[in-house]
Amino acid sequence: MAIFQVNSAVNLDIIAKESIEDLDDPDLFISKPASLKRKLNPEAESKTSSQSANNIRLAKRRAEEMAVLGPNSGHPSEEVLNKEPIRTALVSEELPIAEGGWVASDCSYVGAKKKHSLEELQSKKDFTRVPWKGKDTVCAIDAENRVVLVAVGKPDDPTYSCDAENMTNLMLEIGANTDWTKDELNSRRGKFASATCGWSHGNGQPHPMRLGGERQELMEAFVSNKCVERVAAHQSDSFARYFPKAHEEYRGRNEQLKERIPEFDGNIKGSVFNGCTANFGPNTWTYIHRDTRNAPGACAITAGGNFDSTKGGQLIVWDLRLIFDFPAGSTILLPSALFRHSNIPVRDGEQRVSFTQYTAGGIHRWLEYGGRTKEAFEIEDPEGYSKMLEEREGRWRKALEVFSTYDELKASGVVGSTTGTR
């Protein structure tokens, strides 16, 4: 089977415009400061744990993952081992990253809110369409052979499809029966109802805290549903399979966080991710954006709804110049903090929702600073702080090391062998 060869040259010229949202070329961007508002829970006390306790928690967490996933639903069928990667010209080292390498740079994109069609992108923008049916697994690699995106084949278990459909129906019901505010229906990502749940850190918080807000009761009830836990565990298990080094880093950070904040116990049962967003639709299509506060490992996106995935709902990954058909019930993993991405709208009369999981980069930064803010780090350990400043220029290159190469995954038996190019 031949390998896709695509052109992913990216124009990152910085410009200044009076208005950027109605222009046609989304390849240009201007810098924009972050604006995150969160209600915070009371401060927690630090506490240490023994290594044996860490191992017990790890074993318990893995047992929870397998219990939620079921005996045969963790991985897609064996046919995925014969699939070939999509080769791109992406130079990951040139992606815009914030100083220090913990999160991505904040940007606004020209033409971010414009609706795009398959025909336009393929004819005018030099995009390659990937007619993915959600059954097999497809990897995209950068110029250095790093696996930077994985479209994950559905688990070979009919009960998983049932759970994914149940989650979709629950999301559509919540979306239709909740009195959403105007702001909730019109965010920077698109015009659809959405809510978040989980742990985060930033904007003056003394330590990572569980997100607050009036939708937290709704979201905590939502993520406690067995069907949501099943999808979340599949996302996490796929992350471990295709991004094993990143998953190990996330898992290790969770253990560190538990030591310092004893009440931390993750976000969703069976998942390594610490945050999630539910986009309740009924027509979820996102503007061009990057989830810049996420850790630059990978996030997981699962689509749901009633729509023809060959006509709408596709995932556009601008930095890779790829368009993925994105069927309901299927999952894609990508570093959403680094890649500009958006969707093609579904057709009139169709419905689409999406469920995503991620971890905030600010949590990893707080842990790396010794369980303290940057300001506290500078005051309490001036020597260590100075060393951090000297080393942070190479932090982004170090962060790229958590992405496995295709050869590494092939050697471990996760993916198949390469047979040719075109």
Structural class: alpha+beta
Helix content: 25-40%
**Looking across the biggest beta sheet, what order are the strands in?**
2-5-6-13-10-15-9-7-8
- How big a fraction of the residues is strand? 15-25%
Let me know the average pLDDT: 80
CATH architecture: 4-Layer Sandwich
Q: Name the helix and strand elements from N-terminus to C-terminus, one letter apiece.
A: EHEEHEEEHEEHHHEEEEEEEHHHHH
Shape: globular
Number of helical regions: 11
Q: Which fold does the CATH topology refer to?
A: Double-stranded beta-helix
Report the radius of gyration as a whole number of Å: 21 Å
Low-confidence stretches: 1-52, 76-82, 417-422
Number of domains: 1
Give a written overview of the molecule:
The chain has helices spanning 51-69, 118-124, 158-177, 216-223, 226-242, 244-260, 361-368, 374-380, 382-391, 395-399, 406-411; strands at 29-31, 86-87, 107-109, 128-130, 138-141, 147-152, 193-200, 209-210, 275-281, 299-306, 315-317, 322-324, 331-334, 341-343, 351-358. The protein has 422 residues and is of the alpha+beta class. It has a single domain (29-411), classed as Double-stranded beta-helix (4-Layer Sandwich). The strands form three sheets. A nine-stranded mixed sheet has the order 2-5-6-13-10-15-9-7-8. A four-stranded mixed sheet has the order 4-12-11-14, with no helix packed on it. A hairpin with a 4-residue loop joins strand 11 (315-317) and strand 12. Helix 1 (51-69) crosses helix 5 (226-242). The relative contact order is 0.19.
